[in-house]
Model the fold of this input.
Amino acid sequence: MAHQVVEALVPVMVGVVIDRAIATGDTSALIGSLALVALLFVAISSAFRIGFRVISRAGWAPSTSSVSASPGAYSTRPAAPRPGGSPASC
Done:
């Protein structure tokens, strides 16, 4: 949830940068505002990483090694063998 809240603040912060720094031509306000935008992206990244770590430990997240988009890609159960005895492969 923190990731979504911080992500929703990005357009608000862009508006603040435009109103306070670009519209006025104040260079120090531009540098400060851009630093805050960078900090916002650090917060987005951190919230995602912490959230993913929490759900991974709880066993809810898909495996990061699974790049497949097959219907069973997010299942925690092993794939059923295909007819003929060979396991399903992507």
Q: What stands out?
A: Residues 27-58 form the longest helix (32 residues). Residues 2-58 form one domain. The mean pLDDT is 77. The CA atoms of residues 68 and 90 lie 7 Å apart.
